[in-house]
Amino acid sequence: MRIIGLAGWSGSGKTTLLAKVIPRIVARGLKVSTLKHAHHGFDVDQPGKDSHTHRMVGASEVLVSSANRWALVHELRGQAEPALGALLAKLSPVDLVLIEGYKAETHPKLEVYRAAVGKPLLHPNDPAIVAIASDELLPAARVPVVDLDDFERIADILIRHAAPIHAVLAHAGHG
Asked: pTM higher than 0.70 for the full model?
């Protein structure tokens, strides 16, 4: 497995970009998974559903399965959030894992930059950023800059710069 992340401030368009790029990567014959960092209170099951009830009354894990998919929800119940490496280890093997968030980690990342967000670039201070997808020209950038709407070129960058998972975990001190 190879991994690469998308990093950027909230509102920069990371999820929208992934929705446009993933189909292009899959069309090239690669199997893709994603790992997204969320904020504290996210929920994947809804109140009123049996799985939600099981979790709310104290189950540590709830696995829901059907003929079409399965999902495992693990409630931390005060335990520390697992490290990125531990989460990556839970994924089934694929060609490429795209990580959204975890911008402080050391894996290679494409920065998603939108000027209207009003936040500074991450790239000058993060040596793991390999390129920037931006809605404006960034002549001072020290890494390649690609138009935010050039989905084929962004797919090329993600595939080319993705690193083997074992190398990333070893570099981060996890392996």
From this structure: yes
| 93-123 pLDDT, tens digit each | 999 999 998 888 999 999 999 999 999 999 9
Report d(CA 164, CA 175) in Å as an integer. Answer: 12
Closest listed residue to residue 40, CA positions, set 71, 81, 8, 73: 81
Contact 133, 148 (CB under 8 A): yes
pLDDT in tens, 133-171: 999 999 999 999 999 999 999 999 999 999 999 887 776
Q: Could you give the CA distance from residue 144 to residue 146 in angstroms, rounded to a whole number?
A: 7
What's 113's domain CATH number? 3.40.50.300
Domain extent, residue 105, equals 2-42+80-171
Contact by Cβ (8 Å): 45, 148: no
User: Residue 14 and residue 134: Cα distance in Å, rounded?
Assistant: 11
In this structure, is residue 49 part of a structural domain? Answer: no
In a domain, 29, yes or no: yes
Let me know if residue 66 belongs to a domain.
no
Number of domains in the chain: 1
